[in-house]
Records
---
Amino acid sequence: MLPTATYTSGDATHDFHPGDGPHTTDGSTTQISDIVLNAGGEDRDKPSAAKDTAMGELRAALTTLQDQINVFLTERMRAEKANDTDDIERKVLDEGVEEDSEDD
């Protein structure tokens, strides 16, 4: 049985399923950054390959699930940040009021 996860926030719900695979322990969102790699750094904490056992397959499926969740949350944060910026810009443009202005 593969693991699943459900994200719930307010009235939004999103289900995550790792799918049939293949799965590895080499997650795309859990590695060190490309900047560090390009500067000659190495990932000293890189996980070992999953063994061909029930626990090894579960471990690899969890890595896939973690990647799915990380990508989803990153996209959600970017969208919220863009909406926040748009709201501030809209307020300034539509109302002609600076955000921190005080009327005396």
---
Amino acid sequence: MAAEAEAAREARAKVIAAEGEQKASRALREASEVIGDSPAALQLRYLQVIFNYFTL
């Protein structure tokens, strides 16, 4: 019975992880669309990355 419960927990953890990956993929796609539509957005993102790198 304990093994079944453990297997069920592991299966649920895999489903949760997959859902998170799916949400992250959608967010990345949306971000790429915004950046692709606006060269200024790309420049701002670049500056943000540089700023974050040097302020660690």
---
Amino acid sequence: MHVEGLDQSMGFAIGVTYRKISGLLYSRLRALDLTPEQWAVLYRVGERDGQIQKEIAERSGKDKPTTTRILDALEAKGFIEKKPGAHDRRSFEVSITDKGRRTVELAAPVERETIRDACEGLTPDQYAQMLAWLSAINDNVDRLNHQETE
């Protein structure tokens, strides 16, 4: 495959699209006192109480320092609680609060509507194909990163 310039770069196109969708979601989540990054982490915490930071980072696609910063912000807003881990005193078990759970219930439809609006004009099959392509690309990059760190 031959790629000429940024306008033909898949990585550039994905980055631009991500920033645009993220900006739209940011403006729509503002009333709930959440950023898109915080929303992704809060959603993952709400799926299962008692996760440690490392699990949350992996499940939300973020590195540990970023996850720690986001968890601190979510805790300051009263959306989550952290307590020392039962098995490892250096890590924290994270649980969602009632306020956090209510916020997830309000934010989830906002996120779904934002994605639906951004994907207007795509058929369900096109949307599914896009997700399959992105998953394959992610798998390739994970494999390559793993090979390069060995």
